[in-house]
Amino acid sequence: MGAKIKVLYVAGSGRSGSTILSNILGQAKNFFSVGEFVYVWNRLMNDGACSCGARFVECEVWAPVLNRAFGGPGGVDARAMAQEVQRTSTRPRHIPLMLTGGGRRLLGSRWTGEYTDALRRLYRAIIDATGSRVVVDSSKLPLYGYVLGTIPEVELYVVHLVRDPRAVAYSWLRKKQSTPTGKGLAYMPQHHPVESSLEWDLCNVAAEGFWGGSPERYLMLRYEDFVREPLPAVERILRLVGEEPPSLPFVSERGVELRGPNHNVGGNPSRFRTGVVELRPDTEWARHMKDGDRRLVTALTLPFLARFGYDAGAGS
User: For residue 180, what pLDDT band results from cuts at 50, 70 and 90?
Assistant: First the structure.
């Protein structure tokens, strides 16, 4: 058995700002950001594109990774793996069950050795092919992160990124192109505030429940605090994983230079951005969100707002 595979997993609910955080971390020496890697099988199965613009199987990074892991893209049944992800990692109804010891044992018995072995081989190949020490995975799904943590060779660290649920709901209501060019799927899915609120509740309670008891491997970070003071936040994350690169991509207090191209498998369209990006506090939702939507989201997330440092009134 080789050295441990160090994975920095960004957990939480959708639209929490994980893409920009993972891309910043991916600029650090010995870190490699893969974006929302839970969707790797869909990219492979559908012959999709990497965020660098190349076909996934021809990408300068993913082609050698697939060769190392499986002897090439045909060496693994991507459709079967995608079905395994759907069965084990994306069903919110499984989250309450996973918060109990008996439930974890029951669902854990359903994970196939073929699936976890494929994941082990992939993450190992990323480390070997890129020469990195840390894989940054922003898949966010708590159940997928939990599966990763059960693989003996994986040394899992978790950044639990939490964003004000009203900002999250507002983001899900907006119409966003899925790619800069609009090719393929033109727009990302939109969610009703009820759906985004319940997801926020489940994902954030699960992330804290799964990993909050292990502070040596877990850090809860509010998105609002991150964009207010990004450099100290990133430095805290680096200390968590025991890696302190000699330099970081900050060009000013809130400005970061994203050198491209990156090779994210999935995520928000901002994964395509390169150049200098200025991080700004999130205020648009507070100005433009409909009062009815705001009240609905506040009511549905009220039991957990204070737990994560949010006010039931105007927001943080």
Answer: low
Name the pLDDT band for 182 (thresholds 50, 70, 90): very low
Number of compact structural domains in the chain: 1
CATH code of 88's domain? 3.40.50.300
Contact 7, 123 (CB under 8 A): yes
Look at residue 133 in the predicted model and tell me its pLDDT.
96
- What SS3 class is residue 265? coil
- Look at residue 286 in the predicted model and tell me its pLDDT: 93
Contact predicate 262/52, CB 8 Å = yes
Residues 80, 304: Cα–Cα separation, whole Å: 37
Cβ contact 65:129 at 8 Å: yes
Q: Does residue 316 belong to any structural domain of this protein? A: no
57 within some domain: yes
Alpha helices in 76-153 (DSSP H): 78-89, 94-98, 101-108, 113-130, 142-149
315, part of any domain: no
